[in-house]
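Quick one:
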Amino acid sequence: MIENPSAIDIGEIMKMLPHRYPFLLVDRVLECTPYETIKAIKNVTINEPFFTGHFPGKPVMPGVLLLEAMAQATGLLAFLSNETLSATTKMYYLVGVDKARFRRTVGPGDQVMLTAKLQRCIRGIYKFEAAALVDGSEVASAEFMTTAMEGRA
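Output:
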């Protein structure tokens, strides 16, 4: 599938995740060790569609979109661990979010480093610990649970 899981560009990401603009929130995978960890980036620009309303004059990336970006990183780790693509009949769906915390705002010009670590996989339920960092400081974190399901929604 992916020859070098440590250098994955947007073209390869789009083969794994079903998300598309404006909801694809991972721009590049920098490092990945299947069944262990992933490190990816989201470049935040003033052109993001949510900035026109959140908030005019003080653009802030919504916290739920930071959670979604982290969830997409966990999905990529699951896809890379199992060597599957979203074009197959299997899709990874988010089934739980716990311990979500937001520490500071994210705005235009920030590069968000998304990290995720697989904590365990029991009966097809993956549990991940994830964080979002800007300039080395954690801006958000959460635990995610995903599972593979047949077919698309």
